[in-house]
Hints:
Layout: E1 18-27, E2 30-40, E3 45-49, H1 56-63, E4 73-81, E5 84-85, H2 93-99, E6 100-103, H3 115-125, H4 132-145, H5 149-152, H6 165-177, E7 183-187, H7 195-208, E8 213-217, H8 221-227, E9 230-237, E10 240-249, H9 250-255, H10 260-266
Parallel strand pairs: 3-8, 3-9, 6-7, 7-8
Antiparallel strand pairs: 1-2, 1-4, 4-5, 9-10
Helix pairs in contact: 3-4, 3-6, 4-6, 6-7
The structure holds adenosine-5'-triphosphate.
GO molecular function: ATP binding
Protein name: Phosphate ABC transporter ATP-binding protein
InterPro entries: AAA+_ATPase, ABC_transporter-like_ATP-bd, ABC_transporter-like_CS, P-loop_NTPase, PstB-like
Amino acid sequence: MELPAATPAPAPGELSGLETRGVSAWFGTHKVLERVSLTMQAGQVTALIGPSGCGKSTYLRILNRMHEMTGTAALAGQVLLDGEDVYAPGRRPSDVRRRIGMVFQRPNPFPSMSIQDNVASGLKLAGIKVGREERAHLVESSLVRAGLWNEVRNRLRTPGGALSGGQQQRLCIARSLAVSPDVLLMDEPCSALDPTSTRRVEETIAELRGRLTIVIVTHNMQQAQRVSQSCAFFLATHDTPGRIVETGDTAQLFGDPVDPRTADYVNGRFG
Ligand SMILES: Nc1ncnc2c1ncn2[C@@H]1O[C@H](COP(=O)(O)OP(=O)(O)OP(=O)(O)O)[C@@H](O)[C@H]1O
């Protein structure tokens, strides 16, 4: 599947990269991640792959401080956005979540709210006040960047819930983009979509590359290869928590993996 070329990257220094150092995680006494260190390059798409239950979603939720919303959750290690610890004392989780947005497995627009209000709701939730004109501009530019503008420009006041599943997912991407995040986390964003909608979301990801940093969890090996430049393979066993087995350039990890467990997984021999 041919995807459009990435837009030219902004000047170096304008984009934020993300890095974790020795991140471990628990739910109660159950340790689910073990010392995960990973660099997610600014402006690139990093795919997290691995069998069910190896901790990919937990890791993603740690990156924007959603993990701590679960009562029993604990963690150790560091998450650095532009070199600064997002868990530093005094740093507000809501500020972190504005800079590091998230798109979920199932599209979750506000169904009875209009398309334009859905996009603008991200601003409201983040406490960002804008005038009417700027709001309209942000709604349009966010929908353009999410690849949805042409399909909805004549029905901005109709409910978000009336869109197709794929369009709803792109609406959720637009909602995230409206607050100008540095990083967009995507947790299996196409798993509830048909192949055509999946392709459209993948095109959107390709168009966003170079404009912000993207981290995507996917079970779809073809998708990981189509959309990402870097890849991390997670694995947990019956009695050991999830950890990274191998990380690197996507083409290399799929074409010439170093670890035999990576080779088995990317070639569909388990998981
Ligand atoms: N809220 C929770 N409370 C307790 N345990 C949890 C919770 N969320 C996840 N876990 C456990 O943490 C481990 C990792 O789960 P996680 O969802 O991060 O894995 P995953 O690799 O994303 O799986 P999948 O690919 O199936 O989504 C699993 O053992 C899971 O049961």
